[in-house]
TrEMBL record:
InterPro entries: Nuclease_put_TT1808 (IPR012296), Restrct_endonuc-II-like (IPR011335), Uma2 (IPR008538). This is Putative restriction endonuclease domain-containing protein. Residues 21-153 form the Putative restriction endonuclease domain. It comes from Herbidospora solisilvae.
């Protein structure tokens, strides 16, 4: 006897899947669509969430100070060349966000995204994905900059940018707490990574 449709409805073991299948998943975890397969990640812990909120505030303040037409939020749904990812933070072009709101889009287009940030969640199994798989995927999707934030052994940020003429990243720097992290893309910003864990 074959499995009934209802038996497959929330199964990760059958595929390939599409956006409609992703949207039917329960809200008990974070789900992404990669090459037709639904990938589940557990909800991150308190430290991860705290760092994300701090970074969103820092970026929002920098955007406001610079008077640039950008939008920052996180987590967000974003289409990629392989499906749909849910980065911890994304900075997007506000005109594209406005158009997406008017059109009631399901997710952000990668062409509107200027920066994606992932915060490593230790013991979640996502570190390899964030450092390698997503770096390849975000670059191939045309996202200009990618930052990976790690809180161990001390807070540090690794910054990647698209190589000129290629859809691949090269590593620009890795900055640890106690030093100054600087970037001009997508907005001028300067801070010590240590502030991300300060109360």
């Amino acid at each position: 006897m074959g499995a009934g449709r209802e038996d497959r409805e929330y199964s990760l073991d059958h595929g390939p899947h599409g956006i409609a299948d992703l949207d039917r998943m329960p809200r008990d975890a974070r789900y992404e669509l990669v090459n037709g397969w639904i990938v589940m990640s557990p909800w991150p812990g308190m430290r991860h969430d705290y760092v994300v909120k701090k970074l969103v505030r820092i970026l929002d303040s920098a955007i406001e100070s610079a008077g640039t037409d950008l939008y920052v939020n996180g987590p967000v749904d974003m289409y990629t060349v392989r499906g749909l990812r849910v980065p911890d933070i994304a900075v997007a072009d506000w005109a594209s966000v406005r158009q997406g709101l008017e059109d009631d889009e399901r997710a952000h287009s990668p062409h509107s995204i200027k920066l994606v940030i992932e915060v490593i969640s230790r013991n979640s199994g996502s570190e390899r994905t964030d450092r390698y798989e997503k770096a390849v995927e975000y670059a191939a999707s045309g996202v200009q900059e990618y930052w990976v934030v790690d809180t161990h052994p001390t807070v540090n940020i690794t910054r990647y940018a698209l190589a000129s003429g290629y859809l691949t990243y090269h590593r620009l720097e890795r900055v640890f707490a106690g030093a100054v992290f600087k970037s001009e893309t997508p907005v001028p910003i300067e801070f010590d990574p240590a502030v991300l864990l300060e109360a």
